[in-house]
Amino acid sequence: MNLVKETENDEPILKFSPLAIKDIKETWQYLSEQDEEIAANLIRKITEKCEVLSRNPKIGRERNALITNLRQFPFKNYNIFYFQTESGVEIYRILHSSRDNIQIFDDVIDYAK
Q1: What is the pLDDT of residues 43-73, one digit of tens each?
Q2: 3-state DSSP call for residue 1?
Q3: How many other C-beta atoms lie within 10 A of the C-beta of residue 42?
Q4: Which residues pair with 96 in a beta bridge?
Q5: Separation of CA 50 from chain center
Q6: Where do the domains of the chain lie, and which CATH numbers do they carry?
Q7: Quick check: 19 and 93 in contact, CB under 8 A?
Q8: 3-state class (DSSP) for residue 109
Q9: What does DSSP say about strands 13-16 and 70-75: parallel, antiparallel, or unpaired?
Q10: Rounded CA gap, 41 and 89, in Å?
Q11: Least CB-packed of 50, 59, 102, 111 within 10 Å?
Q12: CA–CA separation, 3 and 14 (whole Å)
């Protein structure tokens, strides 16, 4: 699954981290057990919102307390976490809003040590 949007001209680049790709796959698997059309629509809408973020990277809330330069944008029942890059954005995680984001990011930091 290639989730890097290559662009021409000066359009921003949208890139998904391996963790974000894993989040998307898990969301698809969970929702598709109930209804594949609903799963496909949600993933499409999340991807479209990520494209909006690539063109408007500052609209998300800063979440430096979790990771330096991390931004968060809520969408439906999900939180899109991303980093602004020189050429666009990198989507870092896409997590359901019911998840304990602080614990998830603490686990990432602990794993990196």
Answers
A1: 999 999 999 999 999 999 999 988 999 999 9
A2: coil
A3: 20
A4: 78
A5: 7
A6: 12-112 (3.30.2310.20)
A7: yes
A8: helix
A9: unpaired
A10: 22
A11: 111
A12: 8
Please work out, in degrees rounded to the nearest 5, the angle formed at the alpha carbon of residue 104 by the alpha carbons of 75 and 12.
45
Which residues lie across from 60 on neighbouring strands?
Answer: none
Going by their DSSP bridges, the two strands 78-85 and 70-75 should be labelled as antiparallel
The full 3-state SS of 9-73, as one line of letters, equals: CCCCEEEECHHHHHHHHHHHHHHHCCCHHHHHHHHHHHHHHHHHHHHCHHHCEECCCCCCCEEEE
* Helices 36-55 and 18-32: angle between axes, nearest 10 degrees: 150
pTM for this predicted structure: 0.85
Quote the tokens at residue 64: 């430096």
Nearest residue to 54 (alpha-carbon basis) of 42, 76, 71, 41: 71
Q: What percent of the chain has pLDDT over 70?
A: 86
* Element of type H or E holding 101: helix 101-112
The pLDDT, as a whole number, for residue 112 is: 46
Residue 100: its H or E element = none
Task: Give the containing element (helix H, strand E) for 113.
Answer: none
